[in-house]
Design goal:
Length: 469
């Protein structure tokens, strides 16, 4: 494409079709008005974000006049904020952005002010400041340049050509750990604004018309995406908060249902069984009279007894004999703890495979080995990790397991058994430190690739309430 300086003279009428490609708006009908100095774009839900030394603005654009159920989310760097006087003499303080204007195959940068033009027949005004020396305007004519088509706003069409834009992202986390810091660091390096939000300091206004989330006395802004890093101890409250974000239409990297199911080990194994995914034989019972049968169902001793909500290897016991198994089960029942009994895969020899799934593929894998004398391979318990090459079957199993829970980011733990890979656990909040250092891959960057792909400026179809009679 040529720039305006290189382009031949363009003749414009009072109405033309243009594009704003950097904003993800390939087709707009505009009013060309040489009487107006400033160009303006119809925008709603205008909201600033980003650092004070480089602020950005987010807004929605309704590209088709009269069709307010279709909105394109946009963002841009703020160039200025200035008073603009409209044709009816009213003055308004508006944000000013700079973006490329495209007409008939030519592009050049223009300034645009953001304002509500919902009452106007055309949602963009092209003022004289945007018209270069090689443009002539004939006020008596219209559509002198090729006409475009609103069909470009179909979901399939716009996703292919959607530009990357600065996003506002929340990381739900109560901890200042490696994973949280990496997500903030990587997001900001890509030009996004990433805010760490303490999950338990949020509270919710739950109603049908205007659901909200508040934080430290203020309503939280609209986020493009939420990355949940919810600790096991606050799963119930954390997933309730995620449901509120989902109600608001925010893209959540991992959804509330998947996190809830993965955190309850009994529920998780039932999900795996429903999807016919290989796992160690597992048994669960409430009555102490069923202890012997429970042990037999799991394949007899040695076996594993684990709490339903255990994490990082805590609450997981290896019972090497039937008598030891009975003792552990009796002790857990005495504590009124919920637990399950599981087959011990001897051939795994205290090793498991952590597969990191992002989107629909395994992006990294590592083999974890337990500390000497410990059957548990968790890194938090002194285990070690090395890079590992996984088989096609292991890769497919990991992706299938993550998909069964509807998780976009998951750590799937596998055991290598004589009968194929067995899924031990699907972690909905996998740590990044071990897998990044072992694989030497930028896992945080791959997570942002998935987020950027999922929240590109695709049309938002909104339900418009019927007018009252």
């Amino acid at each position: 494409m040529s720039t305006a300086d290189q382009a031949p003279t363009l003749k414009l009428g009072w109405e033309e079709w243009v594009g704003l490609p950097d904003l993800g708006l390939p087709a707009l009908r505009v009013k060309v008005d040489t009487g107006a100095r400033t160009s303006s774009l119809h925008a709603t839900e205008i909201e600033t974000f980003g650092p004070q030394n480089a602020p950005k603005v987010r807004f929605l654009v309704h590209p088709i006049p009269g069709q307010f159920d279709l909105a394109i989310p946009c963002s841009a760097v703020i160039k200025d904020r200035r008073d603009v006087t409209s044709s009816n003499g009213e003055s308004e303080l508006r944000y000013v952005i700079e973006t490329n204007l495209a007409i008939a195959g030519h592009q050049w940068p223009i300034e645009l002010t953001l304002t509500d033009r919902s009452g106007m027949a055309l949602h963009m005004l092209l003022g004289r400041q945007a018209l270069t020396d090689n443009i002539s305007v004939v006020p008596a004519e219209r559509l002198c340049q090729p006409e475009l088509d609103y069909s470009v706003y179909s979901s399939a069409s716009i996703r292919k050509s959607a530009p990357k834009r600065a996003l506002r992202i929340a990381v739900l986390s109560r901890e200042d750990n490696y994973s949280t810091r990496r997500l903030v660091e990587e997001g900001e390096a890509r030009g996004h604004t990433v805010e760490v939000v303490n999950t338990t300091r949020c509270y919710m206004a739950i109603n049908a018309l205007a659901p909200e989330i508040h934080y430290d006395g203020k309503r939280l802004p609209r986020y493009d995406a939420v990355i949940p890093r919810i600790g096991a101890s606050i799963t119930q409250y954390g997933t309730a908060l995620l449901r509120q974000f989902e109600t608001l239409g925010t893209f959540c990297v991992n959804g509330s249902d998947g996190i809830t199911a993965s955190r309850d080990k009994l529920h998780a194994h039932q999900v795996l069984a429903r999807h016919r995914i290989g796992m160690p034989s597992t048994a669960f019972a409430a009555s102490p009279k069923d202890t012997a049968n429970l042990i037999n169902i799991a394949g007899g001793a040695p076996l594993i007894v684990k709490l339903l909500e255990s994490t990082q290897g805590k609450g997981v016991v290896l019972a090497e004999t039937k008598k030891a198994a009975e003792s552990v089960i009796t002790a857990f029942r005495g504590l009124k703890a919920n637990f399950l009994v599981q087959q011990f895969v001897k051939e795994a020899a205290g090793e498991d495979i952590r597969c990191l799934v992002v989107g629909s593929r395994v992006v990294a894998a590592m083999k974890r080995s337990g500390a000497e004398g410990d059957f548990r391979s968790n890194l938090h318990l002194g285990g070690s990790a090395t890079s590992v090459r996984i088989s096609k079957e292991e890769r497919a199993t990991a992706v299938q397991a993550a998909r069964a829970f509807g998780l976009n980011v998951a750590g799937v733990d596998l055991l290598r058994s004589e009968t194929g890979p067995k899924v031990l656990e699907v972690n909905s909040s996998p740590g990044l430190e071990g897998i990044e250092r072992t694989s030497t891959k930028n896992i945080a960057g791959l997570i942002y690739d998935e987020i950027e792909n999922r929240v590109r400026p695709t049309p938002l179809r909104r339900r418009i309430a019927p007018a009252s009679s």
